[in-house]
Amino acid sequence: MPALEPKALRQLIDSGKSYPVIWMHGPEQLQARELLKRLRAKVRSIVENPLWSEESIDAHGLTGGELADRALTPLLGGYTSVVVVRDADLIKNLEDLEPALTAPAPIAELPAILVLFGKTPDARKKSTKLLNEKAAVVECAAVPDYERESWIDFLAKRRSLALPEDLRSRLLSIDPWSLDAIEQELEKLSLETSGPGTWTRSDGYQFHTDHFLRDFFERRTHARLAGAYLAQTPEEALPLLGLLTWHVRQLILLHSDPGAVKLSSSVRDRLEQFRRKWTLPQLLALQDRLVEADFGLKQGGATPLGVWDRVLRT
User: Fold this and answer.
1) Please, which residues have CB within 8 angstroms of residue 202's CB and are 6 or more apart in sequence?
2) What is the pLDDT, as a whole number, of residue 206?
């Protein structure tokens, strides 16, 4: 099977089918996260099991044979699981994954769907030829110029944001341009409006980005409830980590060099409200914790729940 376009994988998932092994690579990680989100939602709708949750496996020390066993072993209850492996390039003997590399099938018939996030497969390796022939290899490539405006409109519409032409032009001119950069800009813009939507966990806990930011920066203990949720949803948590870092950077400037903060009056007023809750040493300590969290979550080797607990208790 040749490499798949993201659109082709979306269509396959929407039809209720999937490859048992999906390898995603490329610079536009937001596209990859959106595909994982779509797959997760489809599996949830098919499985209809309140105990369902996706599984994350550390690639360090993992072998292709172990991963194949996981892909072919049904969970207790017999429902389909989604297994996410980041830094998949670290998997040893990846060619031993071959028993799990079968044709697309109805999702309900698959014991597991492996979603591997890695670098562009090395064409010189035997495992790459195997993946290209039998897995769904999806390149989330840089968005071409002619598609950028459509993506901006899509991401803005999802947040119920109406963009004036001057702002749309500014978003189009961001350099370097990426979907994550646009998402962060829209996230900041949403602080001046109603904020993004609500994420709801199966146990009823609701996570709303704007509410979380208010609770966290106003130092309300309620914000700590988000730790378990964020630990289970890395595709949502990593962009939030960037937003927290942006806020901390602005708050440090408000303490040390207020004139350097160039923001609209409404956002600045909100940040001033947050600033009064933090001393400069506390903000500098939080900045260090966020750097540690970014490294721990992206490089692996750290427990996500522990990482977020350290941040939320700063």
Assistant:
1) 50, 52, 53
2) 63
